[in-house]
Structure formats: C-alpha cells, structure tokens
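Standup notes
- DV: blocked on the single-chain target, sequence here:
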Amino acid sequence: MAIFGSLIKSLIDIKDTLTSEGEAEKEQLEVLKDLLNKAKDTAFGKAYQFDKILESEDIRKTFAETVPYFDYNKIHEEWWHRYHKGEEDVTWPGKPPYFALSSGTTGKSSKRIPVTDDMVESIRKAGIKQVSALSNFDLPADFFEKEIMMLGSSTDLHKEGDHEEGEISGISASNIPFWFRSYYKPGEEIAKIDEWDERVQKIAETAKDWDIGALSGIPSWMELMLKKVIEYHNVDNIHDIWPNLQVYASGGVAYEPYEKSFNALLGKPVQVIDTYLASEGFLALQNRPDTSSMKLITDNGIYFEFVPFKPEYIKEDGSITDDAPVIQLEDVEEEKDYVLLISTVSGAWRYLIGDTIKFTDKEKHEIRITGRTKFFLNVVGSQLSVNKMNDAVKELENIFDIKIPEFVVAAKRAEDGEYYHYWYLGTVDKADNEKLADALDKALMEANKNYKVARSKALHGVKVTTIDPNMFHEWNAVNKKKGGQVKMEKVMNEEKLARWDEFLKEKGALN
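- DV (later): unblocked, structure below
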C-alpha cells in the first residue's frame, strides 16, 4: 500500500467534495466586476470609463458596447507597447513582471504578452483545480507518488529591463510551488537548457532515473521527446522505460490528429486529459473521464465572450469585423463554432485569442478547441475550418491504416488557371498520393456542404504530397523555434506556400 499516495488521494477527494459547483454565469459576472474594479484607474480603464460601466444596470452589455475588440496587434500598438517605454498602470495596475513570448502559428517575430502576478496566481489555482479533478479518474493511490514530466519551453527566462521574458510554460514552471519540485521532471537544471535538441538529449540520458507517472505538453513535441527516449535506450516503447506511466495531459492543440502516432509509442493505454493553457491564461480543463471535452474555468480571473464563427465576421488575417455580434455564456448553443474572446487579470480586454471552440455540453460548460481563426480556408468559398480538416485526415488514417500526425494545406491557382487545394501530409507510411487525394476530397465533400459547392464551381480539385513528418518540425526550427509552445500552422497563403515548397526542395523532401 502506497501510504503517502493514499493520503494525497484522500486529501484530493475531500477537497473535491467541499468544492461546490458554482453557477457559471454568476461567477462570470463577478469576475467581470472584479476586473473592471481593479483596472478602473489604469490608462485603459479611464479611456473606456470603467467606473461608468460598473454603474450601469447591465454591466456585461455596457462593457460589450463600450470596449472594442482587440487582437494582439491592435492592443500592442495602442496599449501594451507603453510598458516597454517604462509606463505602468497601462491596462492593469502596476507593471507586469513577465512577458510571455508566443510566435503562435504565424510569422517569425514573437508576440510579447503581459503576465502579471495576478495571472501567475490564476494559473497556479487552475493547476490545483486540475490536480483536484484527478479524483474523478480511476487512478490508483500510488499514482500520486509518481513524478510528472512537464515538457514545456526553457525555464531560463531572459531579463529585459524591469521584467523577464519566456514562453508561458517556462514562466509557469519557473513559478511551481516548492512542495511540487520533487515531483517535477525534467528538473530545474535540464529545464533551463534553452536549445531544444540538447534538452531532449539530456532527458533521454536521464530517463531511467525517473519514475514518471504522468506527461504534460503539446502532442507533437511530446512525440519527438518520447521517440528520442525510446531510440536512445533501444526499447520497443516508452513503458519499457517508465512502466508506471498512466496519464498524459495534452494541451495547446487538438489531440485527435496525434492520437494514432502517439499510441504507437505506448506499451499500454494511458488516460489522456486535455488542458487549455494559452499564453494569455489557463482557460479550461478536463475534469471527468467520460468525455474528451474541457470545462471552462469561470471563476478564476478570466471573463469569456463568444463570437459566431461565420465567414462574414472573419477577416483574411484571422481577426474579426467590428460589427461581429457577441454571445454571452448563457446564450451559446451546442455544436456551433465560436471565436473566443477573453478579458483577463493580465490586462487583456475583449481579446481575440485566435482559437475557435464549440460547446459540447452547455449545462456543464464543456468545450472543445476546434481550430484557429487563421486556419480558415475560404479562398474560393470552401469555408473549410481546421476541425473539418482534422476529421478528414483522421478518416484517411482509418481508410489507409496509416499515421498522419501533421499536415498543412493551401489554395493555389495551378498552371492550368484553376484553383486547387494543395495538401502536404506528414507520414512515414506508404500510400498512393492520388488515392489519398480522392479519399480526402470525398471526406470533405461529405462533411462540409460549402466545400461541396466550391468543388462544383471554383475549386477544381485536390493535390496531395506526402512528406516526412520531421519536415514540419524543421520548418518550425527555421522560421520560429523548435519545441516548447510552438504549434505548426495548418493553413498557408500562396506566398508562404512558395517558401514552404522551396524549403522542401532544399531538404530533398519532394520527389
């Protein structure tokens, strides 16, 4: 009997029974009031008259009517850049001690997103909620004595003037509580290694010294790390190294595209738990085993709004139109895609995080990430969202019995003057490109009526090229950074597609 593990499990169970399910809509109103009160004397709060919003009869409605939408570029150019000039009390009281660097899925330059002490505390509380939720899963007592591999970015933050900078996973890991440090792997020394390949090599070399019970990180980079450990020790699967591995906390992107290739690295099934930690905050977590959806965290410093994900509201750069309608939490509908807006204790206001979500259970406030606003392919009216792409690729995996952990697609006019969708599928398995293209085309026509209409008019066909999945990681290394929070883009425009093709030719990846 694992006595210490049983004690921890019992404490979690007790805490869970004492934690009441609050009414999410009331919690959200209280969060908004608290945000407005704390920020009313900032430059932003004065500009948008937060004190008057707080006096209105319908605070949420007045807030939505008074404060415009902001994406990163807009809020940085109008407000956040002032922090870097030494100003304080800009969009949140004081100065943020950290800035989270996020290259996201576009561009080479990093975004610099403020992370306040209040946000660090919010993320810490959300992490405790995630640990508490483990009491809902059928895990043995000794699981709570095992170590946790948190594969994020480097914790060696860079000092820039009066603040530190790094990716959000590195900032979070550098602030883990003292009592958790003995469980945390790869440990402080390895976690500080900035270069991804060197860090993973050290993890592989030290792997047998750890008793890992849980993994946490973005699927694509987690796969690479596990493959390296397996290769270094010349074993069949990761359970030959970590026999007590039972949980994988996925995050950052949809897990489904990676499921088949990830499972191939295991010796036995593990419990996959989804989390939603973005550079802007910890937004949702999976709190029960009989779903793959995540519950919005509605009482922890983040206020949510939702914009219907429709072509008429989405600009080419992925931002939303000024006249896009906003939906409150109680008015959302299940199985409809929404663009997510957040206001936070880091001074983000009605902020377009760039993700699209859908509610799978309105009563439980459970969501799934369905894609990115910039992953919306509508060049010739196909109105193709990334969740439809993911579903179609998963169907290909089943039809052809292959693994496709990565893909990218672009619309381009070919030499015959017609538009085609060019798909690049990352797989090491053998499959005929023409058969893949035909099956992919059929799957998308069945799943998306707008795509079917486009195929009968302006969209002439589908072309598929299969390449080594490592090419996607190498592309990231050249254009952004390898590892950490970096996510591969799923949709390219023609200009980037030309650079992508040239990159693949240079690597000898094209036949």
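- Follow-up: Residues 1-20+96-374 form a domain with the Rossmann fold fold (CATH 3.40.50.12780).
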